[in-house]
Amino acid sequence: MSWPITLFDYFMIVLRVCLAVAVTLHVLRTKQNTAACAGWIGVSWLMPVCGALLYLMFGINRVRRLARRLVSDHHWRDRGLAYHARYRLKGDFEPLARMVGKLTERPLLGGNAITCLHDGDNIYPRMLEDIASARVSILLCSYIFRADRIGDQFVEALALAHARGVAVHVLVDGIGGGYFFSGIARALHARGIPCHRFMHSLLPWKMPFINLRNHRKMLIIDGRIGFMGGLNIGEENLRRLRTKHPVADTHFRLEGPVVHQLSEAFARDWSFTCGEQLDGEVYFPELERQGDIPMRVVTSGPDNDLEKIEFSMLQAIALSRRSVRLMTPYFLPNERLVSELCLAALRGVEIDIILPKRSNHRLIDYARDASLAPFLTAGCRVWMSRPPFNHAKLMVVDEAWSFVGSSNIDARSLRLNFEINLEIYSESVAQELNAFMERHRTRRLTHHALDSMSIVRKVRNALVRLFSPYL
């Protein structure tokens, strides 16, 4: 028995075709990645209605369009930068410095000083001390900011600064700071401290932004002292507390003209989140030389800064001649990074990749283990460090160029998250970071270790690896 075709059936057929055609045309016009193009077009024709809704929610980069509207309204770019701070690099890394300058549209700045700090036990007291000494402004951005014992110390320090007239602004991520309930945002609001949650909304039509996160960690005091790196704010980073899952990390204290670029990155995020501009000498004072190290901030995110951190890393690896050392908590590189690292190893560059034996995300470990064989085949040395889990993100090339900050080496950090890194042209800093990484090279991974895994573990790891862009 056949049912008669009704007017509603004709309407649904036309609707499905129109939706599929609309998605296909939009994908062809806006997507550069051929795999993404094929995937979205296939979904739109197989499931026209659901596919169109999914594409509307997750396939369109509204963040970039919003950033383009906001960027023209900013008046603080390059404010507070003395012209003498702009640095012209000579030598082997001159092509890299020139490329990153064009990529980021930020100058390389000389006259900076940097202090490498390890673990919350050493870093938090220094941050709290500088907050206590603030006179005019405090800018704080953190992916995770917990309302625990260490979080309460920061709230109290910020409240005291706010009470003595310091302009305090706090930005926490909409996911990392607690999606349905943010204890730290409530505590800050209770003390009258301006606090916003980055791209946070419970409204259904703003759900496309739920997968986009501000992973940056920044603290700027009076526009003159900056902190940045991988450290979140939470008591798990205090090793003396002997928490169940302790986290080691590395952070950097900066002084000099480069702090202006750190302030600029925060001001962009603040304006992006709430529309308020931070301007003037309070946030962008004239900065004097504090050392002799050339540095530059590199930001990335799914906006106008798309893939800039990844491109900087790729160019540095391509220019390497002697050594590349990487330390990262999560290692799920895309094909471009895999190829560049393996090619460098094949031409004789010493490649050391230092990873935690076990991170705080088990699924990421499974996917990572399924991706390591090509590196061993090419001659890279992969090391598994002992506990506690180390959250530091460090890269050193030829013992002269360092790249540090918040970005992991995975699809989330390199394409979806808003991240901030710092490039440092200093042999002394590179040697210090190399020595730190050397101490964490505890067990070298071999082909035998990978081959001896059970077939069940290999299949599990390979299956999880398929979802690596979403982990």
TrEMBL record:
The keyword Glycosyltransferase does not apply. Signal peptide: none annotated. It comes from the Bacteria. The keyword Ribonucleoprotein does not apply. It is an enzyme of class 2 (transferase). It is found in: Cell membrane; Secreted. Gene3D superfamilies: Endonuclease Chain A (3.30.870.10). Residues 210-237, 386-413 form the PLD phosphodiesterase domain. Keywords: Cell membrane, Membrane, Repeat, Secreted, Transferase, Transmembrane, Transmembrane helix. Its EC number is 2.7.8.-. SMART domains: PLDc (SM00155). SUPFAM superfamilies: Phospholipase D/nuclease. The chain crosses the membrane at residues 7-28, 40-60. Could be a virulence factor. This is Cardiolipin synthase. It comes from Asaia spathodeae. The lineage of its organism: Bacteria, Pseudomonadati, Pseudomonadota, Alphaproteobacteria, Acetobacterales.
